[in-house]
Amino acid sequence: KPKVTPLKLIPFPKESTNSLLSWIRNAEELQFWSGNTFKNGLNKEIFLRHLQRNDLYSFSFRGDSSSLLAYGEVVQGKNNQAVLCRVIVNPRERRKGIGKQFVADVIEWVFDEKKMYKITLNALGNNLPARKCYLSLDFRIIGVKRNYRWVSNQWRDLVVMEKLSAQA
Fold this sequence. Notes:
single chain; 7-stranded mixed beta sheet; 5 helices
């Protein structure tokens, strides 16, 4: 039986930027992942500049071979609230529970380390795997913005979800 190394949430290593950006293969995937953040294009320089935001924490999971498995961001908002953004799992590693474990670890960091009381996020209405993942982690839908985002030549709903800490 192969030994499984537990996945560990770590700050995103900037030297993994090329690997991360290679997961985004077309304009639709870019918008799926980033919303309107990179509407003027995305490359390594633009992304590294994005990571310099003072209110942004970027995380990753590393695998046995130190390959990048998952990436996500937390934006610290006003009133001790967090926004979970840009969660993505390596396309070769999807459907294995890595995304769910990654988000669970980010939630724990937000509530236990940063002492924030609420996490919100947006998911495209047609992104069922992401929505199912978040619902399984006790996020609840607090709103749907109908026909809110133009993706792949059609309007998509944006589903707004939140999770409160046990202390909230």
